[in-house]
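Researcher: Let's try something more involved. This one mixes different molecule types, so please make sure each is placed in the same coordinate frame as the others.
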Amino acid sequence: MFIWYNKYTRLENDMDKDLLGIKVVRKVILLVSTGQFKQGQKLPAERMLCEKLGVSRGTLRQGLADLQSLGVIKIVPRSGIYIKKYSEKKLPQKVLPPNFKDVSLEDIINARKIIEIPSIELACKKGTKEDIKVLGNTIVKMENTVDDLPEFLQYDMNFHQMIVAMSKNLVLVTAFEAISDYLKYSQVYSSIHEGEEEKALNYHRKIFNAIRDKNAKQGGKLLEQHLEEIVKSYKF
Amino acid sequence: MFIWYNKYTRLENDMDKDLLGIKVVRKVILLVSTGQFKQGQKLPAERMLCEKLGVSRGTLRQGLADLQSLGVIKIVPRSGIYIKKYSEKKLPQKVLPPNFKDVSLEDIINARKIIEIPSIELACKKGTKEDIKVLGNTIVKMENTVDDLPEFLQYDMNFHQMIVAMSKNLVLVTAFEAISDYLKYSQVYSSIHEGEEEKALNYHRKIFNAIRDKNAKQGGKLLEQHLEEIVKSYKF
DNA sequence: TATTCTGGTTCATTAATTATACCAGATATT
DNA sequence: AATATCTGGTATAATTAATGAACCAGAATA
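Model: All components are placed in one shared frame. Result:
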């Protein structure tokens, strides 16, 4: 039989053999960059973080030390661990999707419609009361931050991510996460016009109500309108 | 300052602490399912695979033992390691990538429907004659490889990727790419039984015709049926 | 015939990670 | 004011994963 392997044959070795500490670093950076940990915020105590992340304290502390030297966190003895301000932290540069220039706002909105509208239907089916409660809290948070645009947009994003998560379909969540960079991009452009926060907020309220009432059709319709508005406000 | 963490706070721990052996298993399965290793084929010698995959021989052999008990390979002393024909055996959860434990075949198929059906509509609108020609070539390649399952599945996958690409929406393509690992595994997962290639091929032919004739509705309907069949064949 | 290849096996070593325990200052509770 | 509990800081023993090197015996090759 033929042998077509030799020592130069490439099999793309990526066995992912990083130390656990590094993975802790990445995880925390992810949590910070997605706004789940906010600047100035106090992190859970080490012993609790261990449990949450599923590593031992020694390993965790190794990762935390790296994060401190990166300027992402500040560890204060006998007090806690704090996320440092954005201005001071040197987060690795966010890498945008490769062919970023070839994407239009219409494409982004289209893709969002395609993924999010069916997600609403699933969310109505599979969402728990707890889910709906959390979703409602996000609405409240949006109301409380109408004057703080960046934070408002963060909650806006959270709202939509939450809907997809409520579908309980991890494949869908993965797909949506993969395009979240594009969404942020679209937010930047759609948020140019101030004063539209109330309008957006209103849509979110209605969408929330529809999901709470298990009215998938209505929810989908509202979401479609909401996304259409984004395109319109950009075009003008 | 307020403390809003307690032991029930979810931080989504996925520190990816699987043994290297399992990762070897996953890697090889991926190589098989993408047609880079074909059935009956002889794998590189263990000592070379170690180098390629970047693991020690002991670790590699641990993974190979698992692969053999899964029926994916056959190890022949003093001869070599061979890829077996697909067994009926389903892949146990532990060999699936970390996230897979929370994913069902239904989830995968659902997500595919959600993304691919609207893609067909866009493909009918935006696909060029060149695109359709390439898509047609893929059909031919599938016809030529009905007896070589891994290669057949490779073209099957290509066909679907191509449709999404024809939407000319890079955001959608990104989302679809992000879940392609799920799709590849699902192919092994659902392990097409003999004789079903023709059926699948037939669906692809019809879908191709629909797209060529710019009949989006028909195309979507066919695709939905095709994906339904996958679920059915697994359930039984 | 001699060499080189194959998978099969064993074992000592290294490194990563865990699990415990204790410290001392800060904070909250009683 | 006294006490209990929380915080990060530190040290250490035990466990486990993974490596690397050696050697075997049958088979293929030169």
